[in-house]
Fold this protein.
Amino acid sequence: MRHRSALVAAALTTTLVVAACSGGDPFEPLAVPEPHPGASTTTTAPPDFSGVALAPVEGTTTTSEVVVGPGPATLAGRVEGPDGPVAGATVRLERLVGDAVATRDVTTAADGAWRASSVLGGRYRIRAWLAPELAAIEPQILFVAAGGAPDIVSTVERFQSTLVDLAVAPDPPPVGRRTNVAVRVSSQAVDDDGVIRVAPRPGVEVTLAGGGSWALEGTGLAATDAAGRAVFTLVCLSPGPQPLMVTIPPGEAFPLAPPECVVPPPPDTGAPDTVAPPRAPARGPSSSTTSG
């Protein structure tokens, strides 16, 4: 009996083992363990600050000012005019460094001489004038070494206070036909900076006179308008140069030379330049009469 009980127990144990192996898994799966930490390698790119705006910082901009001196060089010269040395003229020294300019003015002595000491070397532009009538048309450009420059001679010209010129239409004037002559009166003067200024003179009485080869229509007397112009009508009587004379108060006379008068071409009548010879009559049957 005991032997049978032992066999039954063994059989049950075997059945449970087989069922456990062949049936479903009653256990939950185990979690996968994390790997052990080891040595790691990383790559770091440099930071990009191109899109970062910097806050403004208060301060001032420092620039190097261009000056004429003090320096080791000396400049000297004289100013000559139509009547000789010019006393009391202004000589402007402009030291040029790139687009910057430094300026110093000196005045000529009684003999027209001037002198500027303790100046720096470099490129200079020099102008001279005596307001209101004398000025140099073109400045002098020169390079000054550390030891200075040779004697600088500036020549000024006289600019008379009144200018008179003319324009004609048609140009050139045709002989035997009307020509409009516009006389312009203006004044010019040298200002305090040596610049020559020209301005029209309105309301000036202009008297126009021509020689024997001009026929003047009207009185030959007119006042200038706001643009300083007075217009006259004349007829040129012969070809070639025919001068005119303008007089303005208080008796200033100005000889003028308009363009030479020319003989106009003959008028175009529309007719052909040449006449074709008459055509010969066409030949045909001839008839004759014979008297009997």
Observations:
- Residues 1-27, 29-44, 286-292 have pLDDT under 50 and may be disordered.
- Residues 90 and 107 are 5 Å apart (CA to CA).
